[in-house]
Structures are given as structure tokens and as C-alpha cells.
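pls design
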């Protein structure tokens, strides 16, 4: 059971057509989650009641007007509704701009509360980027949106699975843009970021592997010069600052080394380079951390899973991990 000392966490329900509401209900029924934090939901009351009925956990779902009204009693899911976040003409398993708007306004409200100090962390059920974009939110991903509306341009995403953290130098961008974004200063900033987060998480001297961009690590410039001109110099800069970073390590080897326990964290050059490795190492575990906002944020390592949405079969493992990482990071602040 949570105590007054555990962090208050706002939980966004995600895209109402996806598995998010179901995952939220299943996660909040876990004694582990209730012991880690004091949670309440930012979302639609009716959708959360539908999710409880689907899952069959029997919680009461009640409306609150503000975080201060929450009692955090197990067996009760307290929901803070947001103006503009009402779900109308609900349908499961579809991409709908109206549902993208719901996800966006819930997200904005949760991090507005973080800006005001009303919550200690935010956990986000999965959202659909296409639905949000179709609703008029012209951002590559939800973190770019949050960085813009909170005026925190240095916010970054960090991926984590049990025993291994990773960060990508580039995020949700078209593949053809990636080489132009691999610059010495940018690579160094991600190395420093991952080092800092791991130290905050209790790893005194993190060991970091830094991935190459090109095949075979560039082969001395034969397949590209990014390793020679930017990645290796950034690693040297980091080592000069006392950071234990090695590389550039060819991308087809770096997660093999990580699995052998050589690294606590991996710096990758692009999104899928990082995600292929971590998802193979931990198929249902892990989270994506939002770093650099007013409070720690965490979302699942998977998407909305429209194909199984509202069938009662979604596994909450990743969302439960989100609560653990968000709560631990909140207590380190």
C-alpha cells in the first residue's frame, strides 16, 4: 500500500482506441504499483469504467477535480478529466484524430501538473502518433510536443530494460536525415546524458558502449566518415571528462556485448538501432523515459496494439515497469 512518502504519479490513459486504458486498470490492480506510488488517472471517466468492466478487476472509478482531492485508496481508480479530452463516438482499434486529440490534451494536462509541482512523475499509456498528427499536432513524437508546450527544448528519450539503458542520438526522424544529424557535440551530449542518468539511478561509474553508424564501423572511412569525424572524437571528449565510454562499436556487435554484461548503457545513433537491440533482449519488459521535463516521465516500450485492443488480453508488464522507473527517478530528484 502506498504511503504519504511515495511519489504522486499522474497516469495518462493513452489512446482510448488502443490497449492503454486496459493496461492502466491492470497495472493499478497490482499491489507492487500501489506500493511504489500514489497514482491517479488523467483521462476519460467513461472509458476507464469500460476498461474496468472489460478487465473484471472490480475497482470503483470515481471523478476527482484536482490531484489534492485524490485519496489513493487501493480498489479505487481516481480520474481527473480534462476539458477537451472527452471521448465521443468511441470505437476500439482504429486511428481517429479525435482520439489523438484526447491523448494530446491528457498528456499536456499531466505535465502541466508537473510544472506546478502537483505531481512528482508522469506515466503514459501508449499513444498513436498518426492519430495525434492527424489531429493537428505537427510534431514527430509526443516528446517533441511536450518540449514545445513546456518550453523545455533539451528534453530527451532514454530507453531502459532490466540491466541496460540506451539512448539514441537521433529520434523520430526520416531515415535519410540521420547522417546529417550525427555531429560530435550531439553525440557527446547523449553520452553525458546517459552517464548522468545512470549515476542518478545509483550506478557509480557507468560503463557505456557507443555504437557506430555505418556498416563495419565505417572501415576507416571506406563506408562513411561519421565514425572518424564525429563519433570517435565525441567518445574521446567524454573520456576526457572521466566518463567510461568505448567505441565506436559496430552496430551488429554492440548489443551482443551488452548482453555479455560489458555495458550498463548503450548510446546508439538512431531510433531503430536502439530499439531492435533492447526489444530482442527483453521482449515485454522495459520503458521509455522522458528526461529533461519538469518531472520524470515514462511510457511503454510498445505501441497501442490496435489489433488486440479491448479484447482483454494485453499484458501490463511494460507499464508496470514504467511505474517502477518513474517512481525511482522521482525519489532521486
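designed seq:
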Amino acid at each position: 500500500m502506498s504511503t504519504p512518502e511515495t511519489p504522486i504519479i499522474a497516469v495518462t490513459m493513452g489512446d482510448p482506441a488502443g490497449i492503454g486504458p486496459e493496461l492502466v486498470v491492470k497495472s493499478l490492480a497490482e499491489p507492487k504499483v500501489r506500493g511504489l506510488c500514489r497514482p491517479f488517472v488523467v483521462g476519460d471517466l467513461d472509458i476507464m469504467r469500460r476498461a474496468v468492466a472489460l478487465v473484471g478487476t472490480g475497482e470503483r472509478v470515481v471523478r476527482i477535480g484536482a490531484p489534492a482531492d485524490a485519496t489513493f485508496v487501493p480498489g479505487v481508480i481516481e480520474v481527473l478529466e480534462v476539458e477537451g479530452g472527452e471521448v465521443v463516438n468511441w470505437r476500439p482499434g482504429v486511428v481517429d484524430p479525435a482520439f489523438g486529440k484526447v491523448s494530446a490534451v491528457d498528456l499536456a494536462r499531466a505535465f502541466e501538473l508537473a510544472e506546478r509541482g502537483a505531481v512528482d512523475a508522469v506515466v503514459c499509456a501508449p499513444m498513436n502518433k498518426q492519430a495525434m498528427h492527424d489531429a493537428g499536432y505537427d510534431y514527430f513524437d509526443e516528446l517533441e510536443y511536450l518540449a514545445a508546450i513546456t518550453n523545455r527544448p533539451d528534453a530527451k528519450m532514454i530507453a531502459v530494460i532490466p540491466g541496460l539503458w540506451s539512448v539514441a542520438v537521433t529520434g523520430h526522424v526520416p531515415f535519410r536525415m540521420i547522417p546529417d544529424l550525427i555531429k560530435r557535440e550531439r553525440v557527446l551530449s547523449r553520452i553525458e546524458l546517459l552517464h548522468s542518468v545512470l549515476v542518478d539511478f545509483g550506478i557509480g561509474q557507468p560503463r557505456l558502449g557507443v555504437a557506430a553508424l555505418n556498416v563495419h564501423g565505417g572501415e576507416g572511412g571506406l563506408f562513411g566518415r561519421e565514425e572518424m569525424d564525429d563519433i570517435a572524437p565525441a567518445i574521446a571528449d567524454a573520456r576526457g571528462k572521466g566518463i567510461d565510454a568505448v567505441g565506436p562499436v559496430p552496430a551488429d556487435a554492440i548489443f551482443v556485448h551488452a548482453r555479455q554484461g560489458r555495458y550498463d548503457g548503450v548510446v546508439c545513433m538512431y531510433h531503430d538501432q536502439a530499439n531492435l537491440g533492447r526489444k530482442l533482449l527483453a521482449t515485454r519488459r522495459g520503458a521509455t523515459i522522458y528526461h529533461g521535463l519538469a518531472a520524470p516521465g515514462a511510457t511503454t516500450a510498445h505501441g497501442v496494439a490496435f489489433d488486440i485492443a479491448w479484447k482483454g488480453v494485453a499484458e501490463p508488464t511494460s507499464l508496470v515497469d514504467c511505474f517502477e522507473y518513474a517512481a525511482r527517478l522521482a525519489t532521486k530528484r
